[in-house]
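User: Hello! My lab partner asked me to get a predicted holo structure for this protein. The small molecule is adenosine-5'-triphosphate, SMILES included with the sequence. Please write out the structure tokens.
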Amino acid sequence: MPTECQIRPVAPEFALEVRGLEKLYGRAGSPRRKHALKGVDLEVPRGSIFALLGPNGAGKSTLINILAGMVNKTAGTAKIWGIDIDEDPRQARAAIGIVPQELNIDAFFSPRELLDLQAGMYGVPKSERRTDEILELVDLADKADAYTRSLSGGMRRRLLVAKAMVHNPPILVLDEPTAGVDIELRRKLWENVRELNRRGVTILLTTHYLEEAEELCDRIAIINHGEVIACDTKENLMRRLDAKTVTVTVAEALPENTASLPHALASFSVEITGPQTLVFAFRKSDGPIARILGAIASAGYHIQDISTDESDLEDIFLELTSDKQEAGRIHAA
Ligand SMILES: Nc1ncnc2c1ncn2[C@@H]1O[C@H](COP(=O)(O)OP(=O)(O)OP(=O)(O)O)[C@@H](O)[C@H]1O
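Assistant: Hello! Below are the structure tokens for the protein in complex with adenosine-5'-triphosphate.
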């Protein structure tokens, strides 16, 4: 696996550093004109597993494609492993391995042949190739000489990770690594990603799966309409996602305001939203919902109906996009 001094004598604090990145597609006045990135700032600490979360069209691929040298930026700067992509594009790109979303692999080669071809493309001398080690790392050692067309979807995805690693980049970018992959394979891939990270590789991944970000990542940036609307540690961001509401319909008529509710409900964050409907806001980490149900019974009410609503990624998008100031605060934290 890569040693930091192979790429650069002094390892940078940030594996990726993006400042004021802008992308405008299409000519002015053209119907294809699109402001895809609107001054994106991003710092990915060396050694981290970093998630870039965002809905379709948010600008994730544009950002990754700029780093990969496949799309030209309109303005701003990007440094990969401390190397400015404008000043030394070759060295900058040597520091990054990109795992694309599509499973496009030449089916007539074996994994070993494919890795060798890739190593040749990057000019890695034969003596420095680590084909077996990389195949081992992604659990494909026993498939090294099999036809790629005989590999399952999960194996092909791991082979793409292996391909991105042949030139020993210290940064690996995975674009939606587990889209359409079943939960067992997803877990397997997460384990591979963790192992790479343990060996010192910084990981940036884009994902739609909140669970994936939660399971794997130290830091999460949320991107929407070409802007980073939140960027924080997983713990801080998850605290916002921890909120849950439970709506309870009771058999009895409720008072008109919460101040008149029985004392047993006084310690809860509760709203009266209908003649017989109460909505409790609580955090999953506060403990089981039974505490609320017990208090309702102690208050002398009989429950007729109950429903819960967990906040999800969509909620946090809505919350953050409707409260830019707050989002700014999070970003600065
Ligand atoms: N070549 C292009 N010409 C014009 N507009 C483009 C081009 N590529 C992307 N866009 C637009 O730029 C915006 C950002 O697209 P991008 O593909 O970066 O988003 P994304 O977050 O990666 O979405 P997805 O998850 O769907 O891949 C979208 O509105 C998209 O339609």
